[in-house]
Design goal:
The chain has about 120 residues and is α+β, with helices and mostly antiparallel strands. Helix content is about 30%, strand content about 35%. The two termini are about 20 Å apart. This is YdbC family protein.
């Protein structure tokens, strides 16, 4: 399995727009090789808001195909890029326990509208 961890910093003024755009990733549910995506806001004291999104893929090949053929149409279509201050992406090829830990992080306030499940 491949896990994609995305960390985005968002200015307070753009938090609602970011959340709305993030909730528009439902198209992932029909992408071959996609399993699940979840995310929310990290609990922070001050500074910019930080969103963490975890997506799970069957394989690196499925993820690479998505990135080459479908990612940009979703990303450009929801205009999320305009409200992101910074973005950091990390890829892991790990097992089930690692995924469980990432998806159940107590430092994240998960947003129900950001959850995408395979159709």
């Amino acid at each position: 399995m491949l896990i994609k961890k995305i960390i985005c910093e968002v200015d307070d003024a753009n938090a609602e727009e970011f959340a709305k755009a993030q909730s528009q990733w439902g198209a992932l549910s029909h992408v071959n090789g996609f399993i699940k995506q979840a995310g929310g806001w990290q609990k922070t004291i001050d500074g910019p808001l930080t969103a963490e999104i975890i997506s799970v893929w069957e394989s690196r090949a499925a993820y690479d195909h998505f990135m080459e053929n479908e990612h940009d149409s979703i990303y450009d279509g929801n205009e999320q890029k305009a409200v992101i201050h910074s973005i950091e992406v990390t890829l892991y090829e790990e097992d089930e326990p690692f995924i469980h830990d990432l998806l159940h992080n107590s430092d994240i306030q998960y947003e129900p509208d950001w959850l995408v499940l395979k159709a």
